Amino acid sequence: MDENADGTSVRWELFTSHVLDGNPLGDPVTRRLPVLLPPGYDADSDRRYPVIYGLTGYTGRGEMLLHVRPWNLDLPARLERLYASGMPPAIVVLPDCFTRFGGSQYVNASATGRYEEYLTQELVPFIDGRYRTIPDRSGRGVFGKSSGGYGSLIMGMHHADLFGAIACHSGDSAFDLCFQPDFPKTANAINAAGGL
Length: 196
What we know:
Layout: E1 2-3, E2 9-16, E3 30-37, E4 51-55, H1 75-84, E5 91-93, E6 108-109, E7 113-114, H2 115-130, E8 140-145, H3 147-158, E9 165-169, H4 175-179, H5 182-192
Parallel strand pairs: 4-5, 4-8, 8-9
Antiparallel strand pairs: 1-2, 2-3, 3-5, 6-7
């Protein structure tokens, strides 16, 4: 466990998925799962906390939100600011849904694997069983940026029974419309080059 000077701690879980077993890309089924615990979590053994799942953008892994970058705060430092300004303490979970292609869009797909089920059927029950959470939708939210924003919208639309709050920042929710015009151009370029 790593601890921030202000009291936020990071617990590192190693989680093995059953739904990702046999995924078509051969991506790992055992992944590191950082769980950020709020200040005072260990001191008050009766208190239950809301859980927020943080979804990264394309080519991201959850643990990347813990890294310090120039001119930016890492997620624990941002949480400390929010707690100091009055945000109630929460458990924050940072899943790894990276694939060999760079990401999963947090959906079930025959090309990458069942990442929507990984989040909803495996990680949510795992966290609720291991930590002192508020184990219903009123105590569970999800946020994300870019592809993670799209994932948070998917979680909210498909799993309103699990997530009572969602936040999407710059979600790439129209990616199918963005790329669709490129398909004929790509097909023509392949044909002009002699085909596949």
